[in-house]
Hints:
alpha/beta; Aspartate Aminotransferase, domain 1; Aspartate Aminotransferase, domain 2; 2 domains; 7-stranded mixed β-sheet; 3-stranded antiparallel β-sheet; 15 helices; disordered C terminus; binds ligand 7TS
Amino acid sequence: MRVYLDNNATTIVDPHVFETMEPYFVQKYGNPNSLHDFASETHPAIKQAMEKIYAGIHAPKEDSVVITSCATESNNWVLKSIYFQYILTGRKNHIILSEVEHPSVIATAKFIESMGCRVTYLPINSEGLIDPQSVRDNITDKTALVSVMWVNNETGAIFPVEEIGNICAEHKVLFHTDAVQAVGKLPIDVQSFNVDYLTMSAHKFHGPKGVGALYMKKGKELLPLLHGGSQMGGYRSGTLNVPGIVGMGRAMEQAVDALDFEMHDIRELRDAFEEELLKIPDTFVVTPREKRVANTILISFRGIEGESMLWDLNREGIAASTGSACASEDLESNPVMEAIGAEADLAHTAVRFSLSRYTTKEELDYTLEAVKKAVTRLRSISSSYAYAPEGYKN
Ligand code: 7TS
């Protein structure tokens, strides 16, 4: 059996999405900006796809949704443009983020920090959550931007973006949220709370890789990301990725349609699986279930390196993760485990299982047995587990 439980890293392309994209490679391949029928026959599909993306986040027509190549690009754009518009010009000198943002936000913040911007990294508490009050406490009249993700990719924790957005509005500070892990898992309505910029990525909700987007509120426009032609309103020039846009639109539509299923049926599957995992002695999960999206489990198995567990599971055909794939090659401990202050030996024990609407109970039953087998094998050879003091093991 092959089981894919790394859906926070990427998802399978929904076959309907693939079908919708297919004609735009070999049949309708015109450049949408050209002046002939090869071009104009792509226009209805692009228009429809953009309407679906707007509808999926309830964006009003006057606001912009700019298609990018990925969430990393959207996140880089927001922070770097804010640097050019507000920091470099001396109007402001400060931005605020959570300390567990995706590396595409953290690394960009470090870069603009090296160029003279002050950056505050807000801590998370022992449940992996953010206190909105900490945003209020750190805002000054020189703060240009607050950037806090909607859902954490490691734990699945839902951050209080509504409260944070309102605090930003009160203080006239711009607010960006990386909603990559929220699309398709929570209802998104950019008109229901204060948000100026919102990042998305199609491959996290059964769309194609290489297509992302940035929502941008009217009146809060960033500088153009790529100068050139007039594509994407001049904000991101370059020939449109027609199949990608068409695919993202269809994926967004399906994500909205499947939302109830994701929020309820997947939650039931996840909860039952998690309860069984937690019956294994010396295991724990950071964020309480009701404060998480329905698909994610970040679980620690005391005495077992996360990478060893992945190795054993992979041999059984099961794909899981120790955290963000973007950071997993350097064998660093999970950033969230570090941020909550987990002891060094525990910080390396986290394993992330992330489900999707394609996950079945049979796959989870199979995975549970494989995890139990791996725990027995790995603990029998674990020096840290074997030498644990009395009372250390329940
Ligand atoms: N933001 C968040 C919250 C993410 O989870 C990711 C990818 C990105 C941005 C980057 O997205 P991309 O479109 O540029 O690829 N996160 C993960 C992960 O958790 N494991 O692998 C990739």
